[in-house]
């Protein structure tokens, strides 16, 4: 079996996925592994299913099939050590999925400078850091997928800094696609929305508690909510040979939310 026979297969490829303990990151890790990739995962959360230093060895040469590390992507030293460890263990990094990020509900005037700095670090600076660290280990044919949000493409009252940083990553994706094209590295993004996950529910609950004057769309045009798996398989596609001629593009995984703009489904 070759990638020409099944272009979504990722056999023999090494993928770093950040924010992999739950939600989209966890679903992406499982989808990549199902498609044959070696996955190196990191998250600051140490959940029941995500434990530091619990590696799975299944390759004949003894290299890990799954490598998990608990770390904060805002910690530059920890991230550099993680990337070096993956490169040393696996020899290269073929795919980088910048999924880690986070936010909280608060109007801009209620967001302190220190809180703003944390949002910038968590949603933008760590992305550029990982790109700088990983690309030297990435061969021709590599792929970077940045996870942004529908908020990168619309106003987000109560989440202004977060949305601005996601928009910055969306623009960064286009610029990197051109800068890295000569190296044969593709750079794309996905912009999820309306996916039922713990993180999505927590953010919506915060929004309601703060009684923001604007109400987000509750039901996407397709009439049902998606799941983290929908974002995961879109990411598999962008990382695979099936998307070998796609770069600098954002794929909206949102049930039509972005296309709808201000239109709302009545039922």
The helical percent reads 25-40%
Shape call = globular
Major beta sheet, specifics?
Answer: 8 strands, mixed
The CATH architecture = 3-Layer(aba) Sandwich
- With helices defined by DSSP (H or I, 4 residues minimum), what is the helix count? 7
Helix/strand-derived category reads alpha/beta
Mean pLDDT score: 90
What does this structure look like?
This protein has a single domain (14-253), classed as NAD(P)-binding Rossmann-like Domain (Rossmann fold, 3-Layer(aba) Sandwich). It is α/β, with parallel strands linked by helices and 267 residues long. Helix 1 (23-34) crosses helix 6 and helix 2 (76-90) runs parallel beside helix 3 (113-134). The radius of gyration is 18 Å and the shape is globular. It has helices at 23-34, 76-90, 113-134, 160-179, 198-209, 228-239, 257-260; strands at residues 14-18, 38-43, 56-57, 64-70, 95-98, 143-147, 186-192, 250-253. It contains seven helices and eight strands, in the order βαβββαβαβαβααβα. Strand 5 (95-98), helix 3 (113-134) and strand 6 (143-147) form a beta-alpha-beta unit. The mean pLDDT is 90. Strands 3-4-2-1-5-6-7-8 form an eight-stranded mixed β-sheet, sandwiched between helices.
């Amino acid at each position: 079996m070759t990638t020409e026979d099944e272009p979504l297969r990722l056999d023999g490829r090494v993928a770093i996925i950040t924010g992999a303990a739950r939600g989209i990151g966890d679903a992406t890790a499982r989808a990549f592994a199902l498609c044959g990739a070696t996955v190196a995962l990191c998250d600051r959360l140490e959940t029941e299913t995500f434990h530091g230093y619990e590696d799975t060895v299944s390759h004949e040469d003894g290299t890990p099939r799954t490598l998990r590390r608990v770390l904060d992507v805002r910690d530059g030293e920890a991230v550099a050590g993680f990337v070096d460890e993956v490169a040393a263990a696996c020899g290269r990094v073929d795919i980088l999925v910048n999924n880690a990020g986070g936010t909280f509900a608060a109007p801009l005037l209620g967001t302190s400078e220190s809180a703003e700095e944390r949002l910038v670090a968590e949603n933008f600076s760590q992305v550029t850091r990982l790109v700088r660290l990983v690309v030297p280990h990435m061969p021709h044919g590599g792929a970077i997928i940045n996870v942004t949000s529908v908020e990168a493409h619309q106003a987000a009252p109560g989440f202004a800094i977060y949305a601005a940083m996601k928009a910055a990553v969306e623009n960064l994706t286009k610029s990197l696609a051109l800068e890295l094209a000569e190296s044969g590295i593709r750079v794309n993004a996905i912009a999820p929305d309306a996916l039922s996950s713990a993180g999505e529910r927590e953010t919506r609950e915060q929004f309601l508690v703060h009684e923001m004057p604007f109400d987000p769309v509750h039901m996407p045009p397709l009439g049902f909510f998606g799941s983290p798996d929908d974002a995961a398989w879109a990411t598999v596609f962008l990382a695979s040979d099936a998307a070998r001629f796609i770069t600098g593009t954002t794929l909206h995984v949102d049930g039509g939310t972005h296309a709808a703009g201000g239109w709302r489904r009545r039922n």
